[in-house]
Amino acid sequence: MLKNYLMVALRNLLKHKLYSAINVTGLAVGLATCVLILLFVRNETSYDRFFTDNDRIYQVAFRAQLPGRQVDHFAASMLPLAAAMKEGLPEVEMTARVIQSNIVIKHGSESFTETARAADPDFFRIFDFPFLRGDRMTSLDEPNSIVLTESMARKYFKDQDALGQTLDIDGVGPVKVTGVIRDMPSNTHFNLEIIRPYAAVAQAMRAIESNWGAVCCETYVRLKPGSDGKALSDRMPAWFKATAPTLNSPTGNVVLGDIFTPRLRNLKDIHTDPVMTSMRPATSYAEIITFAAVAALVLTIASINFMNLATARATQRAREVSVRKVVGASRGQIIMQFIGESLLLTLIGLVLSIALVELALPAYSAFLDKDLSFNLFTDPLLGPALLGLALVVGVAGGAYPAFFLSSFNPARVLKGASSGVGGGSGRLRMALVVVQFAISISLMVATSVVYGQLLYAQNKNLGFEKENTLILQGFPRSTDRARQQTLVEALAKLDGVAAVSGSNSTPGDGSENNTNVRLPGANPDQMLVLRQGGVDWDFVKTLGLQLVAGREFDRNRPADQLPPLADPAQVPAGDTSARSYAGSVILNEAAVKRLGFSSNADAIGKQFEVGADDDGTNKLTIIGVVADFHFRSVHDPIPPSMMIIDRERFSDVLVRLKAGDVQKTLVEIERVWRDMFPNRPLSREFLDDRIQSQYVREAKISQMFAAFSGLAILIACLGLFGLASFTAERRTKEIGLRKVLGASVMDIVRLLVWQFSKPVLVANLIAWPIAWYCMDQWLNGFTFRIDLNPLLFVAAGGLALLIAWATVGLHAARVAQAKPVSALRYE
Description:
By secondary structure, the chain is α+β, with helices and mostly antiparallel strands.
């Protein structure tokens, strides 16, 4: 019996080639799309699971609520936190801090700027990274040691054994390579290439080693076996509030426990919990679920194709089913036959989909910059998962046709041909077409909104000039302000340079420095927190900020710059006046509102106080107000900010280039830098490139969404084409009679096109409110967002209708051009 079923199934596939091709192609594309999405989903949910004891390893994350500011979530913490946790929380077995630093490595005659991470010795005891050379347990015990990834080891030592070799770091002496580890896999939140012991940077960190208000490192903990991580995380806020000290400043006391709320993030959950300051971009569970839903929707569309085409061909198989029933076949046997045919089609589609996945995977992996694996022989779960997926699709797609076809009344069918075929199937087919196009239109709208929001973010007026603005970095630590000023003056003299200025932070660098300010006569317990930026002369001009009130800093006015800090040896005990400094400040519009001034002009000339670095007081006079500008992504609100002329060295130099021969100017800038810092490589970056890099991941996500949505529409159109062909075939005689009675080709085309236009129009009415609600909820997650435009929904519906017309119309035109005599002889 099974052999007979198989022969009948193969005969039907070969006899009805169009039906078979549409079904197999639709299933193959649908399954391939689903597999590619699920490979992405599996990769995103597999991060850091390869570490031993990953269920006991946690990262400390913080929720910060500064007064008058949005809530921030970040992965960074304070340097003294790790020791306090190990001492005050009995569940904690081991802790490790990781802090980023930029270093210059000199090897031979060449120098390179690299991003390194300094970590406590227990870091490699908590995380069992695979060491190719060296001892993992002792690799960070010595201050002059360094661990490299295999790519870094190859960069500096070629094919030599790197272990025991030395490198010159920052010109302070050689360090010895004590370990070589494998390159970071794509499914880890770590982004490590060079790891140094924390002792190597301890001197540079000495000023903030015990500062509970300076957020600068990642803190990891491993709990003792049997400890409850969730229970400990729930206790963390109360523990932190009791442990973190209250910071006393001239502008008021800061209770850190009221601002910062810690929590523990299990290692396996870090990648799916996006927060600020992460080493690598994270993917939220909402995004993962969205892509999994798209995979399910694509498979649904492919299954609907099979159901529609199978029920559309019911009249052609009604006699076969009736004969089988007459000769003794039970309904159960007929159901099994048609489900078996469905499974056969699905398996053929699965084989073809595997080929499509193999072809697409290299480009897909490169696009995502992830190491996605698809190997049926080495992955024990992949084969059963694919077979299970095919079984679900085959049964889901074949169940209704099987029950529908097996329900025919043999006597009525054999007496009146197709009279025994239930008439409700036509309405069901149209309902399923409505579902298909409702899904397709919703995906089209979603894709357009996601892409529109991305374009808005990339092209929004940021409040500053990002074009032709160059950022220079990489100053040696020994560089003083006077030498930096010499560099700025030398750069300003270049013909291709329009303006130059220094700064301690630049847009898009992720830095955050906040300070508490106090207005004269204000309540000392009221916290007014502003983002503070230390800048140099001409900063407003160089960055192209818009001055809306007052004036810029003027180097010819000494009062604009804060004087040097007082020498502690010269300050009498208890004399606070000696540590009171006067200077000028420029605010943004958000700060004007936060400080309670009635207008920008009203703020000019007003004064407030901020703490100085020596626990003194800076008394600042507002001399200017600039329009709000984005220091972070446009997804974040603009914080109230202040700028002062920094009395110390700055970290970055901004150079505004004139339009013209930019490449020549870059060469001149390199020359000036080499003349001043011959042993220090210049690190430079265009500001617009940095801003665009903030949205690279979002651009890839939107492109993925667009591609998979396009494939869903393609599969829906395949099904529509198949339905149109069978509809035209069933109405062959009717078409012939209409032509004999004078109908033109266009009349026939219009007849068939209108039949399939109605379900698409109904699909619009279903898709529009669903898509509007979902995308409005998604956009509400952005501070600055686009408005939903009804024309976008109309355009998506119109495009779906045009696709349906093209799909049906081309086939209808071919059928309508046939000679009437051929049609009248049909059957």
